Amino acid sequence: MIRVNIVLAIVLVACALGLVSSQQRARRLFIDLERAQARAQQLEVRWDQLQLEQTGLAKSSLVDAKARRELGMQPPSAERTLHLSIDVIAQARTREARR
Asked: I need a surface site. Which of 15, 65, 68, 99 has the fewest CB within 10 A?
C-alpha cells in the first residue's frame, strides 16, 4: 500500500509540474500573440499612411509644381513645339525613298 501511495504521489507531482509548465507556455504564447497583433496593427497603420502619401505624390499638379520649383522646368513654348501628322511623315518617307 505504501508503494502504491508513493507511486501515486510521484505521478501527482509529475502531473502538477506538467500542468504548471503548460500554463506557463500558454502564457508566453499568448504574450507573443498579443505582440504580433500589435505589430501587425502598427504595420497596417503605416501601410495606410504610405498609400495616402503615394496618392498625394502621384497627383499631376504636385508633380508639375515640383518639376517647376525644384528642377526649374518650364513647358515648351509654341515656337519650340512641332506638331506632326501622318501625312507629313508619309511625305518625308516618300522624299527619302526617291533619293
From this structure: 99
Burial (CB count <10 Å: 0-12, 13-18, 19+), residue 17:
exposed
Per-residue pLDDT of the chain (99 residues; tens, 9 = 90+): 889 999 999 999 999 999 999 999 999 999 999 999 999 999 999 999 999 888 877 787 778 888 888 888 888 888 888 877 777 677 777 778 877
Q: What is the pTM of this model?
A: 0.50
**CA dist 70 → 22, 62, 63, 73 (Å):** 62, 12, 10, 8
- Which grid cell is 2? 505504501
CA angle 46, 52, 53 (to 5 degrees): 85
Locate all alpha helices (DSSP H) within the chain, ordered by sequence. Answer: 2-57, 60-71, 86-98
Contacts by residues 15-19 (CB-CB < 8 Å, ≥ 24 positions apart): none
